[in-house]
Design brief:
Layout: E1 18-23, E2 26-34, E3 53-62, E4 68-77, H1 91-117
Antiparallel strand pairs: 1-2, 2-3, 3-4
Amino acid sequence: MDIDTTQPWGLAIDFAGRATITDSGHTVYIKVSDTSLSDIIGPDSITGTYSPVNITAQLTESGTNNSVLRGVGRITVSPAGTDPVVPDQTAIQRAVAAALTNFEQNTAAYSALCTKWTPTSTDPDTEAP
């Protein structure tokens, strides 16, 4: 993924913190959000600190017979002291890389599981007595 240095988070995101990119042939969905429960971005009334920001990247690929493989990556950017989070232009890139790695790991695990449960022979006449 190429970083857009003109954007605070390295990628143009919409008003809701979402973006969609294509990387390594996959459509990856991005979400940038703070971890507070408030609609207003501000310091916590108890701790006086701002909430961390989560960057989530997710991709899915569908196959036959309703099979689906997923990859998810999540990066958390924490505030420094009592200041708000400063955008990290590499955070989305790292979340996408983590999602692609997770997808490859899930693909390998799924393949190993299928190999384990694939019958060695489907013809009962060829079985050894």
